[in-house]
Design goal:
The chain is built from eight helices and eight strands; from the N terminus they run ββαβαββαβαββαααα. It is an alpha+beta fold.
């Protein structure tokens, strides 16, 4: 069955171009290149560690966490033993840091995870909040983004108290495009996609899909005015 706007759910990459070894939506790629050049002048090397991720890749991540073969973290980014936990508890833990397949903003090509390669290697990067806080290797980058990201159309969609997803100081969104993708997102289409997927705990997810979509797709920090 044809899916309307398949790029919203990670089912198409036709709108993407290559940028620094990753795939990004075209306007996002151009804006990122400009932002990176500006940061370089101040000694900050902005590098991407994650960009476009399709539905199948997100499903692999989800299923690895749901099955316990990939470590789950609590809200303080500490490892959690899922032994004895219910499906609902496991789903809640996954959603602290990872999106339900079909709902990830990384499906869109407008969102990127970044770090300062002058201060830490991609190999050593853990993508935890402490790395972007005082005394962390990406703290200078975080300060620079606070003052400059908006000039290039980027902002942090996942902020403390403003988003269902935990605060992610490494996750930038190109809001001139992504704000329209949020508006176009359709929960009925998502339900149909998930129904035909191999996502673990699919039945429990579908049972609460409206609430999960409100909390983890629509509840993000407001875009800058």
């Amino acid at each position: 069955m044809p899916i309307a706007a398949p790029h919203l759910y990670g089912l198409s990459g036709a709108h993407l171009i290559e940028c620094s070894g990753y795939l990004l939506e075209q306007e996002t790629a151009h804006a990122f290149a400009q932002m990176r050049t500006a940061a370089e002048k101040e000694g900050i090397a902005i590098e991407i560690c994650s960009a476009f991720r399709d539905f199948d890749r997100q499903q692999l991540i989800w299923n690895a966490k749901a099955s316990g073969t990939r470590t789950l973290l609590n809200k303080d980014a500490q490892p959690v033993d899922i032994g004895g936990k219910t499906a609902e508890q496991i789903i809640a833990l996954i959603l602290l840091w990872s999106a339900l397949p079909g709902t990830s903003r990384h499906h869109w090509g407008t969102d990127i995870d970044i770090f300062d390669s002058n201060k830490i290697s991609k190999h050593d990067l853990q993508l935890i909040p402490q790395e972007y806080q005082l005394n962390g290797p990406c703290y200078t980058l975080s300060l620079w983004l606070t003052n400059n990201a908006q000039r290039f159309g980027f902002y942090l969609p996942f902020q403390q108290g403003l988003s269902g997803v935990s605060a992610e100081p490494w996750h930038l969104s190109y809001y001139p495009v992504s704000k329209h993708y949020v508006d176009a997102f359709n929960v009925e289409t998502l339900a149909d996609i998930l129904q035909h997927s191999s996502v673990l705990y699919k039945a429990q997810v579908l049972d609460k899909l409206d609430a999960l979509t409100r909390e983890y797709v629509y509840r993000v920090a407001p875009v800058p005015l």
